[in-house]
Amino acid sequence: MSVxxxxxxxxxxxxxxxxxxxxxxxxxxxxxFDRACLVPGYQFPPRNCFSKFxxxxxxxxxxxxxxxxxxxxxxHFNSFGLPSYDADLDASAAYSGRISDNxxxxxxxxxxxxxxxxxxxxxxxxxRLIGYKPYLDFVKGKSRNDVTIHDMxxxxxxxxAEELGLAIMLHIPRAERLADPVNQAQxxxxxxxxxAVRIIVAHIGRAxxxxxxxxxxxGIAACPNAYVDTAMVNHEGxxxxxxxxxxxxxxxxxxxxxxxxxxxxxxxxxxxxxxxMAEAYDIGTSIYDxxxxxxxxxxYNEQLRGMRLASERAGLTRAEIEDVFFNNxxxxxxxxxxxxxxx
Length: 343
Ligand SMILES: [Zn+2]
Description:
alpha/beta, TIM Barrel, 37% helix, 16% strand, globular, binds zinc ion
């Protein structure tokens, strides 16, 4: 039901992470929802990772997990629900609103391209949310690799985002990711056309292998309202490249919890990547270690390890490490929440 943390994980924290991590951590990318956020009667398939957590992942589960994983850190976050047709988008927004305070806990509304501008405006404002979480699966009639960013974020919804100064958590579509010229052009176009919107390119543009990031950050780096989050990126080469080639005041720590609480590691293989997994859950290109050939820690810990190594190699100062893990996100989300008067 909950997050399993072992003695080995606790030793890893004490040995490798405690001295590196700032006292405050801001996780810009987590999925929190309860059963009422799902369409009535929906059951996750047994190999869906949410089955591990009892078919939901609530604020209470997250806080308990973090208290066990990072016992000395104060954890702030930005959350959203499950971006899927199995979720009720309005119920998810209501839940997100209930668990956020716009001080240390912020949340976004799931948005689907068929939602009207009025509907997304209401979903955000009524629940005191600070942005949108669109998703490629919400685009109908196109295969995943043909979806464009513009398909995910129609003009009318972007106009609302600009008016309200929202943040957008964007999981980019298309097989070539940041190397895709359509993605590159549309990312820069959105940033320029909607300067009050802050666009967070999730997972560093899904860069889980080095060629998916090398030479590909310059376009968004030149846009002052473009950010990246590090969710599920444990590749120290990708992280080091990002620290060297993307403004350090616009890099946000993100985890993708609870997926990051599974035991596994993402590894680059021949210009691709696979999730090596200790548990038989299906996530992306997962390969399950059924024989127990190695003992795993969580994706979360592997990411923190990667970030530590990359920050050493790229020469991040203590202040820059604190910015990436806390200040950059805290600043961004507080600005997005300023309309609610909680500053
Ligand atoms: Zn996610």
